[in-house]
Task: structure prediction
Amino acid sequence: MRIELRQIDSDRLITTIAIEEPGDVPHPGRWLTLGEHSYLVLQRRHRYQLRQGRYELVTVALQVKPQRQPADALWWEGGWVIGDPQCRFNARSPLLRCAVLPEGPCDRCSHRHPR
Result:
């Protein structure tokens, strides 16, 4: 199966990858590292082709944003979170740390407060 990495804002093709298993395709909200480049997967689109009267999955297009995984990103409740997920102001998202101090880090924030 072929995976296309596409720039999220322009839909420009960045690169293509061949994989064996469809389960190896990253889901939105996960980081993908290829060599020295790192991407955050934002959307996933499936492309099918009609072959012998049946539709088959041919390509998965990943809409990505070039971004390094932050050092304070952690796996929490089935997804990636930037910063301290126990703080009441944390967005619990791989895109945004919090509303008070979005650029971080959480340990220097005077508004850090547990939920």
